[in-house]
């Protein structure tokens, strides 16, 4: 019974996190950053605590990460292990593996079954009904392998982006910003 309760809690929590991410209001909090390389582009003191002298800094950091890209063979093995379907988008020619994922509840309390579309560099959860009426089509192993390999060969090995970080003593935002 305890396992059932925790599974239900985990499902509800993951749905809330997905909804917050989709709405752009999810805050990760403290996290460990990992990358191939970090370069501090700029650093600016934005607040100095009068009593302690502690400084809050704003940093702009360039982050270079190695892209984690799976080969077509790895995806075929993955699809076999998780009873996935090999798919190709008939408009773009892009490939994906479709596997079942947890359902969500609609506003009326009805269950909405979903699938997870795994692509070379992103994953998307889609209601099964939307996938069935979309331009994604199930294809043969050969067609999938060719499409996946073509897409992977065109991807960069590294991605660079910029992080905006605040370090040091953290105070309410209205005391930091002018």
Return the structural class.
Answer: alpha+beta
Strand content: 35-45%
Most strands sheet: 5 strands, antiparallel
Shape: extended
Helical amount: 25-40%
Cross-sheet strand order for the largest sheet: 6-5-4-3-7
- Terminus-to-terminus distance: 53 Å
Please report the number of helical segments: 5
Pick out the low-confidence regions. 172-178
- Average pLDDT, rounded to a whole number, is 87
- Write down the secondary-structure element order: HEEHEEEEHEHEH
Cα Rg: 22 Å
Q: Count the E strands.
A: 8
Description:
Helices cover 30% and strands 37% of the residues. Mean pLDDT is 87; it is low at 172-178. The protein is of the alpha+beta class. Among the domains are: 1-31; 72-153.
Question: Which tags fit this structure?
Answer:
178 residues; alpha+beta; 5-stranded antiparallel sheet; 3-stranded antiparallel sheet; 5 helices; disordered C terminus
Outline the fold blueprint.
Blueprint: H1 2-23, E1 37-48, E2 55-66, H2 72-81, E3 85-89, E4 95-105, E5 111-118, E6 123-127, H3 128-132, E7 136-138, H4 141-153, E8 158-167, H5 173-176
Antiparallel strand pairs: 1-2, 2-8, 3-4, 3-7, 4-5, 5-6
Short description, anyone?
30% of the residues lie in helices and 37% in strands. By secondary structure, the protein is of the alpha+beta class. Among the domains are: 1-31; 72-153.
């Amino acid at each position: 019974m305890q396992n059932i309760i925790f599974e239900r809690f985990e499902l509800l929590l993951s749905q809330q996190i997905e909804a917050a991410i989709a709405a752009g209001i999810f805050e990760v909090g403290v996290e460990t950053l990992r990358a191939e390389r970090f370069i501090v582009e700029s650093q600016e003191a934005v607040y100095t605590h009068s009593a302690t002298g502690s400084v809050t800094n704003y940093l702009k950091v360039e982050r270079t990460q190695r892209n984690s890209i799976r080969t077509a063979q790895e995806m075929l093995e993955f699809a076999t292990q998780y009873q996935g379907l090999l798919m190709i988008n008939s408009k773009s020619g892009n490939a994906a593996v479709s596997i079942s994922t947890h359902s969500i509840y609609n506003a009326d309390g009805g269950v909405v079954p979903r699938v997870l579309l795994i692509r070379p560099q992103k994953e998307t959860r889609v209601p099964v009904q939307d996938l069935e009426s979309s331009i994604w089509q199930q294809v043969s192993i050969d067609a999938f392998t060719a499409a996946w390999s073509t897409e992977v060969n065109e991807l960069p090995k590294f991605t660079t982006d910029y992080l905006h970080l605040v370090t040091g003593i953290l105070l309410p935002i209205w005391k930091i910003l002018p």
